[in-house]
Every structure is written in structure tokens, then in C-alpha cells.
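Data availability (excerpt). The following record was deposited with the supplementary files.
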Amino acid sequence: MTERVADSIKFLMSTYERLLQKQKDGKLTKSELETLNSLKNFLGKK
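Predicted structure:
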């Protein structure tokens, strides 16, 4: 179970980093922006 939690966290972090990069490039869709904001809230990022 611990391995599954670690994999989930890694997935969330990689998604967060990917969406941040897309935001910097100006290629973020509305749904991706919503996902990014949700991840920021979940991860405690500002």
C-alpha cells in the first residue's frame, strides 16, 4: 500500500510540474488551469 501511495504522489507532482511548465509557455487550457489550481491547493503551493 505504501508503494501505491508513493506512486500516486509522484504522479501528482509530475502532473503539477508539467502543468506549471505549460502555464509558463502560455499553452494551458481552461481545464488544465483548474487542475493546476486544485493541485496547488492540495499540495499547499502558492
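Summary of structural features: The CA atoms of residues 25 and 38 lie 20 Å apart.
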